[in-house]
Amino acid sequence: MKKLLLIAAVAVLGANVNAQEVRFGAKAGYSYSTLKAKGDGHSETSDPLHTYYIGGLVEYKLSDKFALQGELLYSPLGGKMNVEAADPEDPTTFLNVKAKQTYHTLLIPISAKYFITEGLSVSAGANVGLILSAKQKYSADLGLGPLVELEGSDEVDIKDQLNTLNLAPFLGAEYMLENGLFFDARYNLGVSNLAKHAEGGYKLTNSFIQVGVGFKFGGN
Q1: HEC sequence for 123-185
Q2: pLDDT tens digits, the chain, 220 residues: what are they?
Q3: What would be the CATH architecture of the domain defined by 25-217?
Q4: What is the rounded CA–CA span in Å between residue 104 and residue 106?
């Protein structure tokens, strides 16, 4: 009986220690997203889509120097691609028409972290993106400021033209204050071909930069 009580006590203490190594949190911030299209020896990088991300995280501290972190985020990603007119006399040639593509994406980043100091860490991992829906809308650059939406141009569903998986390895850095408030930044390099019906070696990828702020609860 005494042995059972001793084992139970050790198990409870171990559980408490483990619980102190786990921190939950929330984060949000700014995303700078671009698309890159390659095919037939040509390459084009889109104008950026300035957007945001928001979600939660869990961090498991393995030691004073290493940790694992998983997150669940939502972000509308994409970019603004140039539209080439088939006819040189087409008015769109002079309006510099762009196709704004927005991919509503669920992001699942998994990373390994190394702590340079108690508050400063660097990380590397992979961002598994799942495109939930995708829309496209045409707009024109008249040289007078922001893009102008073309009259009669409705937002079109293009989800059936895209693959769902958007895999992006990333590198990042984070600085956390003693009260749990932290600031982080990442560069995510898109490697998945998002074009579902790719022909002639055509490839469409989505890379993005994230800069944000968050708060972690719990910990030692």
Answers
A1: EEEEEEEEEEEEEEEEEECCCCCCCEECCCCCCEECHHHECCEEEEEEEEEEEECCCCEEEEE
A2: 434 334 433 333 343 444 448 999 999 999 999 999 998 778 899 999 999 999 999 999 999 999 999 999 999 999 999 886 545 555 545 567 889 999 999 999 999 999 999 999 999 999 999 999 999 998 776 554 455 555 445 789 999 999 999 999 999 999 999 999 999 999 999 999 999 987 778 999 999 999 999 999 976 5
A3: Beta Barrel (2.40)
A4: 7
Tokens standing for residue 13: 């203490």
